[in-house]
Design brief:
The protein is of the alpha/beta class and 512 residues long. The chain is built from 17 helices and 24 strands. A hairpin with a 2-residue loop joins strand 4 and strand 5. It starts with 6 loop residues before the first strand and ends in an 11-residue tail after the last helix.
Length: 512
């Protein structure tokens, strides 16, 4: 059956039930040998669960798996690895203090007697790196290399163990545009060498750019499998969410009020002590969105952390509603109704081992009605959580489950619900739609516009140029820690902005 249809992988009738939710409901996934197969669907549609079943991290309740024509029952990841199946997880499984080579060989070290043969290990790493055009420094420590390079290490790690089928879970979620282009070149190189790839993504432009076929999941069920060249992004989006999706942001003209937020000549250092934000100045008025466009790594992270009290400011001043807030702590800033959607939801936005109810009040947990003196009011906390789950369409079986059990996109919706419900007068939103599906992006965009129209001043920082251009009323381009030019929304030209983002034309810097 599998050989006649040239399928390397057949997953048939896969069902997986967790307490209160059917994550996979009779799913079929058929993947041909040597193809790049995109697995798409809304947050919580069951994509990662399905791949974790294939990789042996979960056991299915029903269904059959055939790999290379043989029926298998996956019991653990080591069995998957032995069969030639490897998985690059969304959150990498690397040890920061070890070198690239040490991470790759960990648990499968080449030996010379009882000792580890590091020379042979390094040779094998270089051989795989050259064969698949992966270009890594085998002696560099993980903590000293970029996220994109860390991902390459993960790829080499599974190739070192003999993977023929490579699974990628949201591989572009944390990459810069240049790193995404490089990853797709790697995909093509792997395909040319006979490897088969399954990748989970929410970005339909990427699906069209790199995949051969697409399988769409919705509400835990497989909706359709299609040839990529035969469908448009719009077609795939409608299969994912079951309705028409607006790819444009529907917004009226902004009606800005008084200026409420001023940043003057801000200077911020990174963790190495290097000045990464170099004299940035801007202001935001009530009822407007000021967007910052730029390739990641040009000071955006340090800028947002400084403005939200998470990083010390080295120079300059920050004013909110006439008050100097430069030296305030993160809690003091939060208490002034300044909302923050962090770019790293796991590190800055959630406590994953807390319940959803507890996460919905983070930052406000010391305030009434959620607490009084040292006592928590769990009745009020749970009612608050249930209201937000409904209003913001957070897909979950219960407000009592741990935040770690939510899909990435639903974790993001939890954070957005928490920050929006506090009615912030200033909202600092960093990568607000990172890792969420097209339906959720549409929802988040509409909520941002709604907040703007209610009079909230919004600072939007996003690596998605289309997002910055479609949402912003004014925008600035950041390069090497400086805002090199600002635009009114109706004056913004995508070509010029792209040029400025890469450092071309830096001499045209203008003031506000």
């Amino acid at each position: 059956m599998a050989e006649e249809n040239n399928y390397l992988l057949e997953m048939r009738g896969i069902t997986k039930i967790f307490p209160g939710v059917k994550a996979n409901d009779n799913i079929d996934l058929l993947v041909k040998k040597g193809e790049i197969h995109a697995l798409v669907g809304e947050n919580g549609a069951g994509k990662t669960t399905l791949m974790k079943i294939l990789y042996g991290l979960y056991d299915s309740d029903q269904g059959e798996i055939y790999f290379a024509g043989n029926k298998i029952r996956m019991t653990d990841p080591q069995q998957a690895i032995n069969l030639g199946i490897g998985m690059v997880h969304q959150h990498f499984k690397l040890i920061d203090t070890l070198t690239v080579t040490e991470n790759i060989i960990l648990g499968s070290e080449p030996r010379q007697g009882v000792a580890i043969n590091y020379r042979e290990a390094r040779r094998q790493v270089e051989e795989i790196s050259n064969k698949y055009n992966l270009k890594v420094d085998p002696d560099a420590k993980i903590q000293d290399i970029s996220v994109g390079m860390q991902q390459r290490v993960e790829i080499i790690k599974i190739l070192y163990r003999g993977a023929d089928l490579l699974i990628f879970d949201e591989p572009t979620a944390v990459l810069t545009p240049q790193e995404i282009d490089e990853l797709f070149e790697i995909f093509n190189s792997l395909q040319e060498q006979g490897k088969t790839i399954i990748f989970i993504t929410h970005k339909l432009r990427e699906v069209k750019a790199i995949s051969d076929r697409i399988t769409v999941l919705r509400d835990g069920k497989s909706v359709d499998s299609v040839n990529t060249e035969e469908v448009t992004e719009k077609d795939v989006a409608e299969l994912m969410v079951g309705r028409e999706v607006l790819f444009r942001v529907d917004k009226g003209e902004a009606k800005p009020g008084e200026s409420v937020f001023q940043v003057e000549n801000l200077q911020v250092k990174d963790n190495r002590g290097i000045m990464t934000v170099n004299g940035i100045s801007f202001e935001i008025s009530k009822g407007e969105i000021f967007g910052i466009a730029g390739v990641e790594g040009n000071g955006q992270t340090e800028l947002v952390e400084a403005l939200t009290g998470l990083r010390q400011i080295a120079g300059g001043r920050v004013y909110y509603k006439g008050e100097d807030i430069t030296e305030l702590s993160a809690r003091e800033i939060k208490d002034r109704h300044i909302g923050h959607i962090p770019e790293d939801r796991l590190r800055r936005g959630l406590v994953t081992q807390f319940s959803l109810s507890e996460n919905f009040i983070l930052g406000f947990h010391h305030q009434e009605p959620y607490s009084k003196n040292i006592f928590m009011n769990y009745k009020a906390i749970d009612q608050h959580a249930q209201s937000l789950i409904q209003d913001f369409d957070v897909r979950t079986s219960s407000h009592q489950i741990l935040a770690s059990k939510l899909s990435g996109g639903n974790q993001q919706k939890l954070i957005i619900a928490r920050e929006f419900r506090q009615d912030p007068e200033l909202l600092i939103a960093a990568q607000p739609t990172r890792g969420v599906d097209v339906g959720s992006i549409e929802f988040i965009h509409s909520q941002l516009i709604k907040k703007r129209d209610e009079g909230t001043a919004i600072l939007l920082v996003s690596a998605e140029l289309s997002e910055v251009m479609s949402l912003s009323d004014r925008l600035g381009v950041i390069y090497e820690g400086e805002i090199v030019k600002t635009f009114a929304a109706d004056e913004a030209d995508e070509r010029e902005i792209g040029r400025l983002m890469t450092g071309s034309g830096k001499e045209v810097k203008t003031g506000e």
